[in-house]
Design goal:
260 residues, mainly alpha
């Protein structure tokens, strides 16, 4: 073949002689699922943030929210004389949201996950979630200034730090981080984290919230506000953590190629 008849080599960065670009690499199979998850998380973020705004407005005014809080506290007062075992269980559930305890557990698991994976991602995600929760929680607490139920009156802008409940929010965020980090530290615990861990996580959230109200630590709307705040934080962190995960492309167009 003469040099004039030779076909020019294709350059992936330029148009080929036929006027068409080279076909792009195929997108990974899991990209559609990732996009769907992002849409779902974004929707949950919008719903949670809207709920938090509406609840805050109800807490700041004399509304159905404050009347509901008073009725729930009155009902809880009639059952406050718990037996010894009941008091122990209630206090244990309420203390699950203590930041000193949960942060310690999350930090230990995050360090182990970083060492095992060789990536800073577990540590950065955990630190971002806990940091964002701390900042947003304190801003809302100081802005609303709600007194705790033990003050025997419903009052806002009074220097209190009752709404939203930091214990409830911390249980939501820290519990989710623990369930996310455990399989990274011990892959064999992945199934356990989804099934048993998920059930315990739900029990800790619900039981801890009830205990905070029964023990007169918080109003009912404080607990709901904490749950919503925790959900908003998790949604924000999840979206940010997956924002840089662009479409995974296959290393070739044939079936059976490894996704990179």
């Amino acid at each position: 073949m003469t040099a004039a008849n030779k076909k020019p080599a294709e350059n992936p960065g330029r148009f080929n002689p036929a006027g068409c670009r080279r076909p792009r690499a195929a997108v990974g199979v899991g990209d559609g699922h990732l996009s769907t998850r992002r849409v779902v998380v974004a929707a949950l973020l919008v719903v949670g943030a809207a709920g938090l705004v509406v609840l805050r407005a109800g807490v700041l005014g004399v509304s159905a929210v404050t009347r509901f809080d008073v009725r729930v506290r009155a009902a809880a007062n009639s059952h406050r004389e718990l037996p010894l075992l009941g008091r122990v269980v209630a206090r244990a559930l309420a203390e699950l949201g203590q930041r000193g305890l949960t942060v310690t557990v999350v930090v230990v698991l995050a360090v182990l996950a970083v060492r095992r994976s060789g990536s800073w991602r577990p540590g950065l995600v955990s630190a971002g979630a806990l940091g964002l929760l701390g900042v947003l929680g304190q801003v809302l607490k100081f802005e609303v200034g709600r007194l705790a139920p033990r003050a025997a009156r419903v009052a806002v802008h009074a220097g209190g730090l009752s709404w939203p409940s930091g214990h409830a929010a911390n249980t939501v965020v820290s519990g989710a981080l623990v369930l996310w980090l455990l399989p990274q530290v011990r892959p064999a615990l992945a199934v356990w984290a989804r099934l048993v861990g998920g059930a315990l996580y739900s029990l800790a959230i619900a039981g801890g919230g009830v205990a905070l109200v029964v023990l007169d630590y918080h109003w009912a709307s404080d607990v709901v506000g904490g749950w919503l705040l925790g959900g908003v934080v998790l949604a924000v962190v999840a979206l940010l953590a997956t924002a840089r995960d662009g479409p995974r492309r296959r290393s070739g167009s044939g079936a059976g190629r490894v996704v990179i």
